[in-house]
Specification:
Number of strands: 21
Strand order of the largest sheet: 9-8-7-18
Radius of gyration: 27 Å
Structural class: alpha/beta
Length: about 550
């Protein structure tokens, strides 16, 4: 099998003659059994070249020139595996004796991996060993946080309990895609599933500034001005909210699976029951306010309501008790927020004609088939065969949150969130180890999924980082789990080494041992010369690499 990237493993056959691998081909014996029928992409064909690369490193090597830099000869000298392992073990044992943390409280051992988690599949017992070792600084990143889908990773776990989200391609009939070039980046299985969907009649609408191979294969290609995707989504949301009756949306889903009916007070926080502090909704049955989880409640989605007694809880112990206050629903406030974002408003921003945005929003609603169901493993579930996908350029940088909010709200209005045919999640990374994600879903505060935010309250906030970047201090959304350091602003570690971060944080002491596994941070970050100088100050580096990178 090939696992050269996060989209594998793809199965294949390798022809071996006299002990030498000579050819890679698809494993057609698995047609109908493997997700891509045994086919592979072009990467596995390069695995033979990688295996027999004349520059491949075959034995451990020790540096003999202490000077480091672009023009320095490392003076590599081959050593035995015993010598290499003993050298590393001696360093680790010395750290074990003196303590795992340095005088600043940072781990003396650091680990950097590349390939978006792919190396985890290759490390054998190495990661288990480091987990048993104790605190390890995994914050010296290899470029991921500068280029990755981090908005989706973080908000995906809030909304989906999933590190990555995807459309249910085998069951989806209509998808709006913003910049995601799935035919080039989806791996064999991704490409196969999307092309199979088109072949059976599914419609794919591709928004992107340039015509990609995915756009060329789509049902319709919509040229759009760069970085204006959220405006297009807001305009389509406006159509759903203002040009259709509320009853045309998935009202049952909005009432009972979202915070849409929660009442909001004058300070912008939920109005809560005085005794339980649970958010209030206006119940149509009793014609009054009740806590959101009251059995048999039929909550209102729109309207303003007078509440006799209630309380708002704000940040840092702020509290406001109210008598006879008028409250709007969260759904009503969201709708009002989009009042001016019509297709006519979006047209000069996006270069997409208003009539096109209006038509696509209407098609999206029609294809959602609100009220339809399907049976999965003996369970009857909602069937909403529509989805909205966003690509890396839309997912990263300024405006990414607005795009993901628009994406999520589009599928939420029609009930296509986490149901067959709709927008669904994959594995989890941030909130827990990667096991069955549904097992990690528990009801948290106010009815939302529980989520282990890093604390931000005055008496709980961690003013000083626990590793060389500041994920526990300045990034509450990334949690503090086993994967958090990999996505928690890893460029900040390098800025701190260079004295370019907060003056209240001391420049960190370099790790005494830095393991680099299948990563090349020097070329993955910008400012290569400065990175080189910073890395040269590391006292002891153990690099696992195929060639001299």
């Amino acid at each position: 099998y090939c696992h050269a990237c996060v989209l594998g493993p793809d199965v294949m056959q390798v022809e071996v003659i006299d002990g030498v691998a000579t050819r890679v081909q698809p494993n057609f014996d698995l047609k109908g059994k493997a997700p891509a029928d045994g086919k592979v992409c072009i990467k596995p064909y390069g695995q033979i070249q990688k295996l027999y690369d004349p520059h491949r490193i075959l034995k451990p090597m020790k540096r003999t020139n202490p000077k480091k830099g672009r023009n320095e000869d490392p003076g590599w000298m081959e050593i035995t595996w015993d010598e290499a392992l003993d050298m590393v073990a001696d360093k680790l044992n010395d750290i074990r004796r003196r303590g795992l943390l340095d005088e600043q409280g940072n781990p003396r051992v650091a680990l950097t991996t590349g390939g978006g988690g792919t190396p985890f599949r290759y490390t054998g017992t190495f990661l288990s060993y480091l987990e048993a070792w104790g605190p390890v600084d995994k914050s010296l990143g290899s470029g991921g946080t500068a280029k990755c889908n981090h908005s989706e990773h973080i908000f995906g776990e809030l909304w989906h309990r999933a590190f990555m989200t995807t459309m249910d391609a085998p069951n989806c009939d209509y998808s709006l895609t913003f910049g995601e070039n799935i035919n080039a980046s989806g791996g064999v299985t991704g490409v196969r599933r999307h092309m199979d969907a088109l072949a059976r009649g599914s419609k794919k609408i591709q928004f992107e500034p340039q015509l990609s191979v995915t756009g060329a294969n789509a049902t319709e290609w919509i040229p759009i001005r760069p970085n204006t995707d959220s405006a297009a989504m807001f305009a389509m949301l406006h159509v759903l909210l203002y040009e259709h009756a509320l009853e045309e949306l998935d009202v049952d889903f909005l009432k009972h699976m979202t915070s849409s009916p929660y009442l909001v007070g004058p300070n912008g926080y939920y109005l809560r029951d005085l005794n339980t502090h649970k958010p209030l909704v206006w119940d149509r049955t009793s014609n009054g306010p009740v806590p959101y989880d009251t059995p048999g409640t039929d909550p209102e989605l729109l309207g303003k309501f007078k509440i006799d007694r209630s309380v708002e809880l704000g940040a840092d112990e702020d509290r406001w008790e109210h008598n006879k206050v008028t409250a709007n629903t969260a759904f009503g406030l969201m709708k009002a927020h989009l009042a001016d974002h019509s297709p006519e408003w979006a047209e000069p921003i996006t270069d997409v004609p208003a009539k096109t945005l209006r038509r696509l929003a209407n098609e999206f609603l029609t294809h959602a088939r609100i009220g339809a169901t399907t049976d999965v493993d003996g369970r009857t579930l909602p069937y909403r065969p529509v989805s909205v996908m966003v690509g890396r350029g839309v997912n990263t940088g300024w405006g990414a949150y607005e795009c993901l909010w628009g994406q999520t709200m589009m599928v939420t209005l029609v009930g296509a969130l986490e149901v067959p045919g709709g927008l669904v999640g994959g594995s989890i990374f941030i909130t827990a180890p990667p096991y069955e994600r549904v097992d990690t879903v528990t009801v948290g505060t106010d009815g939302f999924m529980s989520y282990p935010f890093n604390p931000t309250r005055k008496n709980e906030w961690a003013a000083m980082p626990t590793v060389r970047h500041g994920h526990t201090t300045i990034l509450p959304l990334v949690s503090d789990s086993y994967y958090s350091q990999n996505i928690g602003a890893s460029m900040l570690s390098w800025l701190r080494f260079q004295g370019r971060a907060a003056p209240t944080w001391p420049n960190p002491i370099p790790p005494e041992i830095w393991f680099i596994f299948r990563a090349n941070p020097l070329i993955s970050f910008s400012e290569t010369t400065r990175m080189m100088q910073t890395m040269a100050a590391m006292p002891f580096v153990v690099s696992f690499a195929y060639t001299l990178d």
